[in-house]
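Mods, move this if it's the wrong board.
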Amino acid sequence: MRIRGFLVILLSSYSFAQEVFVQKDIIKYFNEKNPFYYEKVGDIYIKEYNEIFYQGAFDIKLDARYEKKEYPLSLAEFTKAGLKQSLGNGVEFSAAYRQATGTQEYNNIKTSKDGEGIINLHLPIFNILNSISKNRKNLSLAEQKTKITRLQSQEKIIKFYLDVSKLYYKLLLQKELLQANKELLDKAYINFEFIQKSIQTGKLPQIALVEIESEIINRKQRVALTNIEFQKNFYSFLQYLNINKKDFNKSYTLPELPKQSSIELAQDKAMQIAFSNSLLLKSLHVKKKEITIKQKYNQVKKYPKLDVNLYGVYDLKYKEGYKATFDFNLPLQRSSYKGLKGVYTKEMLLIQNKIALQKSKIKTAIITVMQEIKTKKEVIRLAKKEVTLKQKVEDAQRRRYKLGIGNLLTLNQREIITLQAKQKLLNEYYKLIEKELELRYILREPL
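Not the wrong board. Structure tokens:
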């Protein structure tokens, strides 16, 4: 029975166990319920619906018309109902039923009393030859704009992830700085106990107790101020995750600040990855595609307008018939075509220049950040040595004090100096992480 009870307690405690919150866990909170995240992706949905709007040009449409007139000298009635659809490249197909009786006012259509079926095929010849139309151009441009918006949103999300990650590691830094100050306070309590015992045995005067109590107050203040900074960073971090402190503490615990480099990459490889992943470069290539679509549509203006319409009818009484029309229009100067051709040529050159410029910026950024990472690693190596040396001096001073050949003021100073060296090392670890995050941002590593 006792074993069973123990297992129940063990399983209950396990079910409520906290997980260590790591950097990748940030992504779990990037969802549409998070207003900071939705702000980054909201434009995508607008562009997607804009695409649907332009797709409407290819919808099947119901076309119906009815006329009835009773003039003093003429009577007429006209009925028409059918379906129409754009098939792409400006080609349109329609099929309808119509009936016309009497003297028509705007056309000379005549049918039997049973009416007739009619089909129509609209063929813009040069649109077909160039595989483009206004509707196709509008839809294609809308699709490209959606792609650009997706890339821009992805860029915003990665930047947001970088900013929240920096805040996360800043929180871990504050946590360790708080712990270091608590350890400093613990040392003061240990000194207090030593002094108290020494006073009781007559080795130290009563004033020594006042000195250590004053130092304890000072160190409590340091802990309080560091804790304020920790809590401020904590609430800022939770704000971006869209979670409250109670729920976070129930599910997670924070780890220590990482003390190892998380990225080892050759410079050439880093540039290769950055060029491949660059969302701005991808956006510029999509913009090139946009210009190509516009150039293709403008190319039609180089030629005369030549539209062919083919009609076929079948009357239940008078049988079949047909009609063909040709619509020809030739602009003699073609200023519109020449002007847009020049615009699109220059825009393409500008895009190509932006691509080259962006690659140069990426290359410079990688070289700079990787050099900074290398420097930070060397600074950390020296800072670790400094902490070791400062700790040795502090330990030696503590032994001197306990032997009665040192003083409390000097020991307090050595403890503060050691703390400052540890704080400096912790800050250097954080700065290294910051630089590595910046490198990952330049590489645009997918989330």
